[in-house]
């Protein structure tokens, strides 16, 4: 038996993609429809041209719908714009002697959410990370327990209202509802991390086209996220500038011959580089491959150093242990795993969506982690009546003002 179909829409800086999928009884995900398109109207994770983006979203949705043979009315969408980032809130409430029940948890979370209501920012997630009863820490599910004071540490992920609204408006113009919003780095982590990693501590780095996003997981939960406005497109621009060629050719040179780590034969291998404004068989330069890599390496190094500084600043460097998972389209760069190992001084593996069927090699790759994670998020947040005890700590809504707790449930019922 499969769950109802879920539609996930990843609006990235370089591509828009849609998965229409459902969960199989063994916990794996079957993808029935896929559509992906070059993203126009996006820059560094944010909408810069609504009309252009609308065309891209429509095209991606139509392709996925045609493949799945279903019409979609609402989507779970990622948020990369508006600097989505994390804050941790601690809140306490008195219990009046009765055992903790669902309504206590709901109340204390609402309280925490209201406590952290920052003007001009939308709360995307409010995730209970750890409960305390009378100051005793480390309680994952306090329901049924007695005490005087219930405390909770809540991880709030929020983003600036304007960019979030712009994205919703574009989606609405495509005659789609937004069923839930998920911070992009959180989604990427949900798709490609395994349970042990999330439990023991891991940092998932999604290297996209316009952004590099970070999600730290510990104790099975996401505990920190951030989105840095630098990605693969910056590497491509550096190559185009450095070799005086067009952006399209720079992209091709980068993906075909680029490497984050120099290798021995690089000086001898010559690449033909047509000059900007010339046709491919017009005036060109011959440059050694080493020159290409000398452009690529510093930019990637700088990006990874930014990630390291960011993790150190928040204290997440130590907290998250020594594991790093790299994903996103730009993680396909040759040698990036070794470079990340050196810069971050951690054990690095490459990640792609885990437990998905029906994806071809190309669409099951690291560039599709965020989209796959949106499906995982929707599965983990079923309609309220379906929440079992297993969902303790899962009282996490999309949190945005536009949609409340029951919304995703209604959406699952009404969507198809
Ligand atoms: N083989 C490759 N080697 C190096 N870089 C690659 C390769 N394939 C794709 N890329 C880069 O990956 C980037 C796109 O990645 P991805 O599809 O994850 O981005 P996105 O999700 O659209 O953007 P973002 O997440 O930043 O909003 C591009 O900059 C592209 O140059
Ligand atoms: Mg992305």
What CATH architecture of the domain at 85-160 do you see?
Answer: 2-Layer Sandwich
Distance linking N and C termini: 17 Å
Bound small molecules, by name, code or SMILES, are:
adenosine-5'-triphosphate, magnesium ion
Spatial sequence of strands, sheet with the most strands: 11-6-1-2-3-19
What are the segments in which pLDDT stays under 50 over at least 5 consecutive residues? 386-416
Mean pLDDT: 90
Shape: globular
Instruction: Tell me which oligomeric state these chains represent.
Output: single chain
User: Any idea of the CATH class of the domain at 85-160?
Assistant: Alpha Beta
How is this structure best described in words?
The structure is a single chain. The protein is α/β, with parallel strands linked by helices. Among the domains are: 85-160, 2-Layer Sandwich (Dna Ligase, domain 1); 232-290, ATPase, nucleotide binding domain (Nucleotidyltransferase, domain 5, 2-Layer Sandwich), CATH 3.30.420.40. Helix content is 34%, strand content 30%. It contains twelve helices and 19 strands. The protein has helices at residues 50-68, 102-115, 161-173, 184-192, 195-200, 232-242, 247-257, 289-314, 316-319, 336-344, 369-380, 407-414; strands at 6-11, 15-23, 29-38, 42-43, 46-47, 74-79, 85-94, 121-133, 136-139, 149-160, 177-183, 202-207, 212-218, 221-228, 270-274, 284-288, 323-327, 347-350, 356-357. The strands form five sheets. The chain has a six-stranded mixed β-sheet, sandwiched between helices. Bound molecules: adenosine-5'-triphosphate and magnesium ion.
């Amino acid at each position: 038996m499969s769950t109802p179909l879920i539609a996930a829409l990843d609006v990235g800086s370089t591509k828009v993609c849609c998965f229409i999928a459902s969960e199989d009884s063994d916990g794996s995900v079957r993808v029935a429809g896929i559509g992906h398109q070059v993203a126009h109207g996006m820059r560094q994770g944010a909408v810069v041209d609504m009309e252009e983006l609308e065309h891209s979203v429509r095209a991606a949705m139509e392709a996925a719908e045609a493949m799945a043979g279903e019409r979609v009315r609402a989507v779970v969408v990622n948020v990369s714009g508006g600097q989505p980032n994390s804050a941790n809130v601690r809140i306490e409430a008195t219990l009046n002697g009765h055992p903790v029940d669902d309504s206590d948890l709901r109340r204390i979370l609402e309280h925490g959410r209201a406590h952290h209501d920052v003007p001009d920012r939308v709360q995307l997630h409010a995730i209970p990370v750890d409960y305390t009863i009378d100051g005793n820490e480390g309680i994952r599910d306090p329901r049924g327990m007695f005490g005087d004071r219930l405390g909770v540490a809540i991880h709030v992920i929020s983003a600036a209202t304007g960019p979030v609204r712009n994205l919703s408006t574009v989606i609405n113009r495509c005659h789609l509802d937004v069923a839930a919003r998920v911070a992009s780095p959180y989604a990427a982590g949900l798709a490609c991390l395994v349970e042990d990693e999330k439990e023991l501590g891991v940092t998932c780095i999604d290297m996209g086209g316009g952004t590099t996003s970070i999600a730290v997981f510990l104790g099975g939960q996401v505990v920190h996220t951030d989105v840095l406005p630098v990605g693969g497109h910056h590497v491509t621009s550096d190559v185009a500038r450095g070799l005086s060629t067009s952006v399209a050719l720079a992209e091709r040179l980068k993906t075909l011959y680029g490497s984050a780590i120099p290798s021995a034969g690089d000086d001898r291998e010559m690449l033909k580089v047509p000059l900007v404004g010339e046709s491919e068989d017009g005036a060109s330069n011959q440059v050694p491959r080493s020159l290409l890599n000398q452009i690529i390496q510093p930019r990637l190094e700088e990006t990874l150093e930014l990630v390291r500084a960011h993790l150190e600043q928040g204290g997440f460097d130590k907290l998250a242990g020594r594991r790093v998972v790299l994903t996103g389209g730009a993680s396909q760069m040759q040698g990036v795993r070794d470079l990340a190992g050196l810069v971050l001084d951690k054990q690095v593996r490459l990640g792609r969506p885990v437990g998905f069927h029906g994806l071809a090699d190309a669409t099951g790759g690291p560039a599709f982690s965020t989209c796959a994670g949106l499906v995982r998020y929707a599965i983990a947040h079923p309609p309220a009546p379906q929440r079992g005890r297993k969902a303790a700590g899962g009282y996490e809504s999309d949190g945005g003002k536009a949609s409340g707790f029951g919304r995703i449930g209604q959406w699952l019922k009404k969507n198809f």
